[in-house]
Amino acid sequence: CTNIILDGDTCRGVYIENGTSQEEIRAERTIIATGRRGADWLEKICAAHNIAHQPGTVDIGVRVEVRNEIMEQVNRVLYESKLIGYPKPFKNKVRTFCQNPGGFVSQENYDNNSLAVVNGHSYKNTKSDNTNLAILCSHNFRPPFDEPIPYAKKVGELVNMLADGHILVQRYGDILAGKRTWQEDLTRSNVRPTLPDAVAGDLTAAMPYRTLMNIIKFIEAVDKVVPGFASEETLLYGPEIKFYSNKVKMDEKFNTNIEGLHCLGDSSGWTRGLMMASVMGVLMGRELI
Predict the structure, then answer these.
(1) First to last CA, the chain
(2) CA dist 124 to 49, 59, 64, 100, 104, Å?
(3) Taking Cα atoms as reference points, which of 251, 202, 228 lies closest to residue 62?
(4) Would you say 2 and 15 are in contact if contact means Cβ atoms under 8 Å apart?
(5) Structure confidence by residue, pLDDT tens digits, 60-95
(6) Could you give the percent of the chain with pLDDT greater than 70?
(7) Is the pTM of this model over 0.90?
């Protein structure tokens, strides 16, 4: 699909590429459900045709790794805890996400391998000595700025640049001490990185001040609930980024400001994940059919 067919303020269908030729598919109703990967495409369509939308949220943060002993009580009771805070002075929402007891930190690549971001997972039968989890700071923007996804990508690219295209790792104590982490520091640490090719370095040279301060204050708060979480040897990997689409404005019947055009799922900015997108699809089906 290359574009939508407009007749004034009414959508009449879509243009599609079929090999080397372009075809039209006309319909009374058109539903765009391009997923998170198609969010950039939908954003361009909205901008080109004045489809009402607003900047969405983007989460920028780090993946934290500590010894299992630190998280033992939390892991036993909750397995995956959900901790949320609004640390001073900025009071942005900061949250934990994707906790992996005995897990491993991993690298993911986006945009044809041009952007490396950190993630984490657990295996059923293979366990590490560490627990990892994400700490994400939510960023919400107001007009005239409406490009949260490119903004987050730029932050990620800066971190990648310092790590030569890899994931960068730094000890929490080194951040507080105002020094970068060296590879020999990691070899002497009680917390051994589970991502072998992570590059020791300095996250503070690339992460926005507001983001990093929110993360530091949040770690200090978590340490009161989970003693040892703010250890000097706690590892912070970056960048961890969660991209969410700009939010297409729709009424309670899923109508956009373009008649006959509806948006669905993660690309619409209304959902975050398979379950929410599926429920939205069911509701939209009931409404439109």
Answers:
(1) 23
(2) 48, 28, 21, 11, 12
(3) 202
(4) yes
(5) 999 999 999 999 999 999 888 899 999 999 999 999
(6) 100
(7) no
Please choose, from the candidates 45, 58, 11, the residue with its C-alpha nearest in 3D space to the C-alpha of residue 248.
Answer: 45
Q: Which two tokens stand for residue 94?
A: 């900061």
Point out which residues pair with 5 in neighbouring strands: 13
Hey, is 49 helix, strand or coil?
helix
CA angle 191, 85, 69 (to 5 degrees): 25
Pairing between β-strand 21-26 and β-strand 53-54 as defined by DSSP bridges: unpaired
**194-228 residue pLDDT tens:** 999 999 999 999 999 999 999 999 999 999 999 99
d(CA 207, CA 212): 6
Which residues have CB under 8 Å from 149's CB, separation 6+? 39, 40, 43, 58, 243, 245, 246
Task: Give the chain's radius of gyration (CA, Å).
Answer: 22
Alpha-carbon gap, residue 284 to 289, rounded angstroms: 8
273 by DSSP, 3-state: which? coil
CB atoms within 10 A of CB 109: 11
Give the integer Cα–Cα distance in Å for 239 and 243: 12
Say how many C-beta atoms besides its own lie within 10 A of residue 82's C-beta. 9
E-strand spans in the chain? Answer: 3-7, 10-18, 21-26, 30-32, 53-54, 58-67, 84-85, 94-100, 104-110, 115-121, 130-139, 168-171, 199-200, 235-242, 247-248, 261-263
Q: Rounded to 5 degrees, what are φ and ψ at 13?
A: 145, -155
Q: State yes or no: pLDDT of 146 exceeds 80.
A: no
